[in-house]
């Protein structure tokens, strides 16, 4: 298996635990095909919600489930989606036209408010999981998902164009391509990036944003013709580790600083680091090569790993090449020489991002793993961390006219009343008030005042005051026929 294949295989566990963490149910079910077309299923896990205005809301999730209310939650019905595949996201452009997407390339479309759903063809094969959809207009919609999947339709879904992320020769992972992928690339075939694109949001047909793993954020101002990368501005930095002349092992007087570095890295799992070793001209003359700089970088890496920092979060840069005939060794050696011997530690911001929302062309927020919230005021070009005082996952973030609300695992709830600059626990304890100890998976506002949160076991919360306060709606009590069923795909 190629290095890239090994990297991909290792990340399948991350897919289950992270990319699909807010999507895939974690409970055992028993199937019973005993429910009717409009029965409410008691223990459905809801993964996504969308709303139009203050009355119309749809929620979707496990086993192809789609619920709808047309009267602000007074009554509910289960719509016949025609699939047993999990639906990971749902979006409506208006009260009639919408899409639902999900497992194994699932794309469903409706033009009658969800009364009927039609399967549409994914443009890629093999089909990849689709994690998010945004219905921009009744005709225009975008989706994103696994393996860099990014699709767009401009004709109501009659056709979907593949705008997925591709690998070119200047891509960082090009050198890790398998022989099969390299041969495909040489034949002129598309080779797809294996990045998880988790969510997207469009303000209008021209302006859109994508949130992904590894802190990747894209934005477009021209309807997706071109995409730029946003950058995350972090506050964490680490001093270089100093080495006495000729010493390859981490000196004892540097241990304290590395203990502190390891503690911070373990607290902030979204940070990755890059190490690079350097040496002096005198050390080069004494040793004859640059391996001392490699030994120093390896020593710092081993120290951090021994303190619990995962090896997948540490990368050593510019090690001495094995195949020196293919490298200008004079130039390489010159790049490793400094006045003192040390190992530099650079920080890479790589939070796993789940949900993105914008209120206008400039102001947006993103929620992610480890209690991460990012905020931008320049259209997504730069992003800043906002403290939430939590390291639990935040799966969804929504913006009302009174508050920005972030929700996640184990009833985690955070509120901001200053546009996402600062977050607090608010005035409600969801665990205490609503007995929420599972996942709240998605949040949306249909208008400035009316918001919805959905999650495990058919959870539905509603706000009618712009996100300041939330109340729980028991969907089951409002329907006469109830059925416990199990899981689909």
> How large, in whole angstroms, is the Cα Rg?
25 Å
Structural class by SSE content: alpha+beta
- Give the overall pLDDT as a whole number: 89
- Estimate nothing, just give the exact number of structural domains: 2
Distance between the termini: 28 Å
* Beta content: 25-35%
Q: Which percent bin holds the helix content? A: 10-25%
Q: Note the main sheet.
A: 5 strands, mixed
What is the topology, as strand order, of the major beta sheet?
18-26-25-24-23
What ranges have pLDDT less than 50 throughout 5 or more consecutive residues?
Answer: 1-17, 24-38, 480-487
CATH superfamily of the largest domain: YVTN repeat-like/Quinoprotein amine dehydrogenase
Number of strands: 34
Under the CATH scheme, which class of the largest domain? Mainly Beta
What would you say this structure looks like, in words?
- The relative contact order is 0.14.
- The two termini are 28 Å apart.
- The strands form nine sheets. The protein has a five-stranded mixed β-sheet, with no helix packed on it. A four-stranded antiparallel β-sheet has the order 2-3-4-5, with no helix packed on it.
- It has 489 residues and is α+β, with helices and mostly antiparallel strands.
- The protein has seven helices and 34 strands.
- The protein folds into two domains: 3-233 and 352-483, YVTN repeat-like/Quinoprotein amine dehydrogenase (Methylamine Dehydrogenase, Chain H); 241-349, OmpA-like domain (60s Ribosomal Protein L30, Chain: A), CATH 3.30.1330.
- Strand 28 and strand 29 (413-416) form a beta hairpin.
- 15% of the residues lie in helices and 31% in strands.
């Amino acid at each position: 298996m190629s290095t890239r294949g090994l990297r991909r295989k290792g990340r399948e566990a991350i897919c289950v635990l992270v990319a699909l963490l807010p999507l895939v149910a974690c409970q055992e079910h028993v199937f019973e095909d005993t429910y009717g077309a409009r029965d409410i299923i008691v223990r459905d896990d809801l993964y996504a919600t969308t709303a139009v205005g203050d009355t119309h809301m749809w929620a979707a999730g496990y086993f192809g489930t789609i619920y709808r209310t047309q009267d602000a939650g007074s009554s509910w019905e289960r719509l016949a989606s025609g699939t047993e595949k999990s639906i990971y996201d749902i979006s409506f452009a208006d009260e009639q036209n919408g899409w639902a997407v999900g497992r194994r390339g699932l794309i469903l479309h409706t033009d009658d408010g969800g009364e009927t759903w039609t399967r549409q063809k994914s443009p890629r094969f093999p089909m990849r999981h689709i994690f998010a959809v945004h219905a921009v207009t009744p005709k225009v919609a975008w989706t994103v998902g696994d393996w860099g999947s990014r699709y767009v339709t401009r004709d109501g879904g009659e056709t979907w164009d593949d705008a997925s992320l591709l690998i070119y020769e200047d891509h960082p992972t090009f050198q890790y391509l398998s022989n099969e992928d390299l041969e495909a690339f040489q034949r002129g075939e598309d080779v797809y990036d294996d990045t998880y694109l988790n969510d997207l949001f469009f303000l209008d047909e021209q302006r859109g944003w994508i949130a992904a793993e590894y802190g990747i954020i894209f934005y477009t101002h021209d309807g997706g013709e071109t995409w730029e990368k946003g950058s995350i501005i972090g506050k964490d930095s680490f001093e270089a580790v100093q080495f006495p002349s000729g010493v390859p092992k981490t000196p004892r007087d540097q241990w304290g600083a590395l203990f502190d570095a390891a503690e911070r890295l373990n607290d902030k799992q979204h940070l990755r680091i890059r190490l690079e070793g350097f040496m002096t001209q005198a050390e080069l003359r004494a040793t004859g090569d640059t391996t001392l700089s490699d030994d120093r970088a390896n020593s710092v890496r081993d120290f951090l790993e021994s303190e619990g920092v995962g090896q997948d979060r540490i990368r050593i840069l510019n090690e001495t090449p094995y195949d020196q005939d293919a490298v200008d060794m004079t130039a390489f050696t010159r790049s490793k020489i400094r006045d003192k011997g040390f190992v530099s530690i650079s920080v890479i911001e790589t939070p796993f991002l789940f949900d993105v929302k914008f209120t206008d062309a400039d102001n947006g927020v993103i929620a992610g793993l480890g209690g991460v919230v990012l905020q931008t005021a320049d259209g997504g070009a730069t992003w800043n961390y906002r403290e939430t005082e939590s390291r639990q996952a935040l799966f969804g973030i929504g913006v009302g006219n009174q508050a920005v609300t972030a929700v996640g695992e184990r009833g985690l709830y955070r509120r901001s009343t200053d546009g996402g600059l600062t977050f607090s626990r608010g005035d409600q304890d969801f665990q205490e008030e609503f007995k929420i100890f599972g996942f709240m998976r998605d949040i949306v506002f249909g208008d400035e005042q009316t918001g919805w949160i959905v999650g495990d076991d058919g959870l539905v919360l509603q706000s009618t005051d712009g996100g300041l306060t939330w109340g729980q709606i028991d969907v089951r009590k409002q329907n006469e026929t109830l059925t416990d069923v199990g899981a689909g795909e």
